[in-house]
Design a protein that fits this description.
With 224 residues, the protein is mainly α. It contains 7 helices and no strands. It folds into 2 domains: 165 residues, Helix Hairpins (Orthogonal Bundle); 48 residues, no CATH class.
């Protein structure tokens, strides 16, 4: 029983959450877009930092390369001038700088690769956010139309004032005609007390007529 109650509670919670998400879907879309914008901004800052480091490493590589070139020229001059000691010192310095240059070139290559990947990610994220913002505009328009349709259904459909008026008209038109009902009652009364038997016999041609008819009038007009 406890497991069943837990399952029912979980299902009810899921349905309530789904209804809540549907009700506030536009607000949730806007919030998610804001979060995506914040993430994109952070990614841009990271990309800018990597580019800055890459440029700094590139300047260091250029500077070390220039120093190696300059010191190599001086070392050759020292050797030509018979200063082997100074040429040896220059050679050691050049070796150290070449080792540093190799490390910096490796670092520069890794930075360039990372920058390329992150730049592609930023461009992809930026395009997706643009699509999301356009989708949010469409979703907001659809939600507005749905709201209008709901209001129209509430006012024009179901138990609306027009339906109630139509029902009342039908009831009025469907009621019995009191004048016709009175005529029928009078006829029934005449039949019950035999008051109209003479008129009916007179109309049938038995005895003198007690009332004038349209046929009598037409007959007199023909005789004149």
């Amino acid at each position: 029983m406890i497991a069943t109650m837990r399952t029912l509670f979980t299902g009810a919670s899921a349905r309530a959450e789904e209804q809540l998400r549907d009700h506030y879907s536009i607000e949730l879309i806007d919030q998610k877009i804001r979060e995506a914008d914040a993430n994109l901004k952070a990614a841009k800052l990271g990309l800018a930092s990597l580019i800055q480091r890459e440029r700094s490493e590139a300047r260091q590589v250029d500077s070390i390369t220039a120093r190696i070139t300059e010191l190599s020229v001086r070392a050759k001059a020292a050797m030509a001038g018979g200063r082997e000691d100074m040429a040896a010192q220059a050679a050691q310095a050049i070796a150290d700088m070449e080792n540093e240059l190799a490390r910096r070139r490796d670092t520069l290559a890794r930075l360039e690769g990372r920058i390329m990947q992150l730049r592609q990610s930023v461009e992809t994220a930026n395009r997706r956010i643009i699509d999301l913002k356009q989708g949010a505009v469409s979703a907001r328009a659809v939600r507005h139309e749905q709201g209008i349709q709901k209001r129209l259904r509430r006012h024009l459909g179901g138990d609306s004032a027009m339906d109630e008026a139509d029902m009342l008209i039908g009831r009025v038109l469907g009621q019995d005609d009191p004048f016709e009902q009175g005529e029928i009652l009078s006829q029934i009364d005449r039949e019950l007390d035999h008051r109209d038997i003479g008129d009916r016999m007179s109309d049938a041609g038995f005895g003198a007529k007690g009332r004038s008819t349209a046929a009598d009038v037409l007959e007199r007009l023909k005789e004149k």
